Every structure is written in structure tokens, then in C-alpha cells.
Amino acid sequence: MGAMSQNPPSLRPDLAPRLILDSPRREGQPTIGMVSLGCPKALVDSERILTRLRAEGYAISPDYAGADAVIVNTCGFLDSAKAESLDAIGEALRENGRVIVTGCLGAEPEYITGAHPKVMAVTGPHQYEQVLDAVHQAVPPAPDPFIDLLPASGVTLTPRHYSYLKISEGCNHKCKFCIIPDMRGRLVSRPAHAVLREAEKLVEAGVRELLVISQDTSAYGVDRKHDLSPWKGGEVRAHVTDLARELGRLGAWVRLHYVYPYPHVRDLIPLMAEGLVLPYLDIPFQHAHPDVLRRMARPAAAARTLDEIAAWRAACPDITLRSTFIVGYPGETEAEFQTLLDWLDEAQLDRVGCFQYENVAGARSNLLPDHVPAEVKQDRWDRFMEKAQAISAAKLEAKVGRVMPVIVDSVDEEGATCRTMADAPEIDGNLFIDEGFEALKPGDIVNVTVEEASEYDLWGSLN
Q1: Which is nearest to 120 in space by CA: 103, 104, 139, 105?
Q2: Domain of residue 189, residue span
Q3: CATH number assigned to the domain comprising residue 227
Q4: Residue 175 annotated as lining a ligand binding site
Q5: What residues does the MTTase N-terminal domain cover (predicted)?
Q6: Which pLDDT band, with edges at 50, 70 and 90, does 146 fall under?
Q7: Contact between 295 and 330 (Cβ < 8 Å)
Q8: 171 is in an annotated binding site
Q9: Does the annotation list 418 as a binding residue?
Q10: Which of 360, 377, 397 is the last residue of a domain?
Q11: How high is the mean pLDDT of the chain?
């Protein structure tokens, strides 16, 4: 996105990809810039806002100088991410001067206006109409019905060959370290037919990979009592298993993110073994010691989780398991941390991210006793990542010599950057092709032979 800021990857393992904007401007057309911070769920919100604005006749600017006003879609998950959002707002004010703030941090308008009183408007997460009203007031629309046509797939901020597909908002969990339910509310699932229709349009527009996201993908449809929607001459249930099956029939890669390990997750594994859904699960385990999990107000069944992982791998040997963890949670003892390291040794997860715990304004965990000193948190993070890196290196080394499909993300004069089925964009590793790549283009899915491996990435050659 040029000069516009984003939260650095060190703050958010599930960081949204960089914006990719390409919108030619006609003479006299009002233009809006967008800074999208935080996770892919926020990126989907940004896409929806820009799609509406594009339909109303606005052009989309990739830089501050070319924008009549700038929308900053903020992150409010961690205090450090909040600080980064305030920095991005400040940068937008300095570089442009006309700034509208939305997103998770917008749920605390006084926090924003206290730091930046010159912002033009502040709206909360997924308040699309209020954002549009603020834009209309700051930069009146000037539509041309003969020129301004809404693209069939809407405005996308990711490369054209993959797209995030948000299936619900909110979360019913009450984890003590998290304020997402306070900001985004309880679970609200989209109707199954609406999700599938959006996915179908994306695939028809050339999307080769659908990344399914929500705060709690496994719980999809619980709030709707798993109701039925009309679809393709029949009906489809608002349930993650049924939704995944139907998405898999559209012909694109389907990758599932933020899947809590409820018992019914095991019903997804046969779909992965059949090839309908990518053999990839992104599951936020957070910790392994039952006492820490209880203090987090999360299910404390790490041993049974190991049994589930073993069952998943037995049914689908190629499954890739990704997770995030928190070290240094209030009260975490050295023995509890060692339990986490031992659990990781046994679980042998393929992809792992890790946060050092930090207080978040409004989170109940702030009030817990025995907060861990910063130097201890750093030491535990270093030890955890050292073990995770060693596991990742061994897993990738075992792939050398295998032939596997990859999706091409980008091509330049030095080579092609690709991803295997085991790699989500921006948060996992890459596979690089540095010979015979000239005919490749983004979105191609090709077979490669893996020739080299590092701790996180692979190198290969076309078959």
C-alpha cells in the first residue's frame, strides 16, 4: 500500500496481507484511501466498505497524496496493536489530514479522539453504514452511472487468486485475555446460501483459494440453530461441516482458519482426506497446562486434544496443524510452561505462532494475580520458538523429494513465490522456484518436486 502503515507481523500472527489497490481515476472523481490494520477479518470489512464506495462512484487511492480522505480500519486486540493503530491514524493525519476511523478500536471513540482530536469521525467494527455516512459528509459522491460499474466480485484487497470468506461475526467464548466479544458481540452467522453465493461469485471471478474466517469457525450456525437454506435445487444446513463440503465442490482450494477443537471437528477430516477441503486446520490451542487454560477460561483438556490430533492424523496423514499460543500468562509457573513445551514435543504441530501475554484494557485477565515479569516472558517465548522452529525444520526436511501441488503467489525476475497446501498466505512459509519459472503467473496451481528445506520455507522445481 505504499506509505500507508500496517501492524507489524510481530504483533499479529494472523496479520492481514498488504493491501493491493488498483483503481484508475476519471477526472473529477472523488477518491478515498484505506489503511487496513489487524487480521483478515478486518480486511474483509475493508473490502466491503470499499466495494460500497466504488459502487457509489468513488475511486480508491493507493497513497495518501491521491486521496480526498483516508479511512483507517483499526485493530484493538492488544494494547500494542492499539498503539500501532494510533500511530497509523497520526500518520494519516500528517500525510493527508482528512481521516475517518473505523474498526475494533472504534468501539472506544474517546480513546481515539483523546489522542487525535482532529479525526473527522469514529465508528465501531462492521458499522458499514456509519462509515459511508462519514465519507459522504467528508467527500460528497459524484457518481457517473455510465462509468462507475460495481465489479462482479467487489473490490478485493488481496491478490486476485485468493480471497478471505467471512462466515460469521462475534464470538460466544469468554476467554479472560480477550475483548473481541465486547467489541464485536456474540456469534452472528451468515445464512449458508449467502456464504456459498459469495464464494461462487469469487470462484467465477478467478479466485483459486478461499480462506474461511470468523472468530470461531467451528461454531458456525449455532446461533441459527443450524437452519436450512435453499441451495442448488436443494437445501444446505448452516453447519461448518455442510458448509465446507459445499465450498469444496466449487473447485477452489478451501482453507479453514480459527477452528476450535470441538468434537464435531473430526467430521471435517474425511472431507480433507477426500480432497474436498485442504488438509489444514488452524486451531487456537493457546496453552496446554489445564490450570493455565482454566485461568484463561478455556476448555482444559490438553490430553484429550492429543488423542484428537492422533485421530485426525490417522484419518488424514497429510493434515497440517497450525496454532497460536500465549506464554507468560498471569500465574504461569515454570512447571506449567514446561508442560507446554512437553505437549508441543508430543503434538508435533506443523505451524506455530506465539504471543507474549500483555494486558489489554478491559480484559478480565488484567486482574489476575502473579503477573509474569517481562524478562521471564521473553525467555519463555525464546525457548518456545526454538522448539517450534526445530519441529518445523524437521517436518519440512521430511518433505524433500516429494511431489506436491503449489499455488503461485507472485513472479519476478528472480523466481516464483508459491505456497503448498500446508501454507496460508502471509502467516506460514513459502515454496520458491528459481529455475524454469518464467511462464508461471499468480494463481497457477502446478506440481513441484521439493529439493531443499529450511526452518520455515521450501525450494523446488517444476515437474
Answers
A1: 139
A2: 162-397
A3: 3.80.30.20
A4: yes
A5: 30-140
A6: very low
A7: yes
A8: yes
A9: no
A10: 397
A11: 87
